[in-house]
Automatic annotation (TrEMBL):
Signal peptide annotation: none
Record organism: Comamonas terrigena
One Gene Ontology MF term: oxidoreductase activity
Keywords (A to Z) from UniProt: Flavoprotein, FMN
Keyword match Flavoprotein: yes
Pfam families assigned: FMN_red (PF03358)
Every NADPH-dependent FMN reductase-like domain range: 9-155
Entry superkingdom: Bacteria
Protein name as catalogued: Flavodoxin family protein
Keyword presence, Flavoprotein: yes
Length: 185
């Protein structure tokens, strides 16, 4: 039995229970994972992620997170693979995933957590959709740089044409690429 556990972190600002183009493409990629691979889907836009307060250059310290943030940290640590599911918003990552990644700065400094060492080796992927591929490049670069900083293998970016609901389903190139995307790292 495999011990693979994929954590899908969706960041669409769409209404709850609406599957947009990016999530649809990620679910298409996930559909091709072996049956014994565990999948956890967390909708970051619907999580109570507080603003990150940077206290590393003041007298403050970073305590272990509590409540829902502790659950999110634990889900992150429990995963063997992380998949950022992020539509392109203004040429960048959506607010929800950016807020989540900002908290990594604090988690890196929680005494005894050893966050960076525990994340090293876990592949990081990005699934994204938008009007034009070139407009997704800043978010692709951001995700790849996060992976490099954390010593996480870069699993790559899966991009598809977004826009109106269900637009990505007509992007045959993206749908075909989804089939083996999550097994590349």
């Amino acid at each position: 039995m495999r011990n693979d556990h994929y954590l899908f972190l969706t960041a669409s600002a769409r209404e709850p229970h609406v599957i947009g183009n990016t999530e649809w493409l990620a679910r298409e990629a996930a559909r091709h994972l072996p049956d014994d691979v565990q999948q956890t889907w967390v909708h970051l836009a619907h999580e109570p992620i507080p603003a990150f307060i940077d206290v590393r250059h003041s007298a403050g310290s970073y305590p272990a997170p509590e409540g829902r943030m502790a659950d999110l940290l634990q889900a992150t640590l429990d995963a063997s693979h992380l998949v950022l599911v992020c539509p392109v918003y203004w040429f960048s990552l959506p607010t929800a995933v950016k807020a989540y990644l900002d908290h990594w700065s604090g988690w890196l400094r929680v005494p005894g957590l050893d966050f960076k060492a525990r994340m090293a080796g876990k592949p990081l992927y990005l699934v994204s959709t938008g009007g034009e591929r070139r407009k997704a490049q800043p978010s692709i670069d951001a995700a790849q740089l996060c992976a490099e900083f954390m010593a996480m293998p870069w699993g790559g970016a899966l991009w598809g044409k977004g826009g109106a609901p269900d637009a990505v389903q007509a992007d045959t190139e993206a749908v075909q690429a989804a089939a083996g995307f999550l097994q590349r790292a």
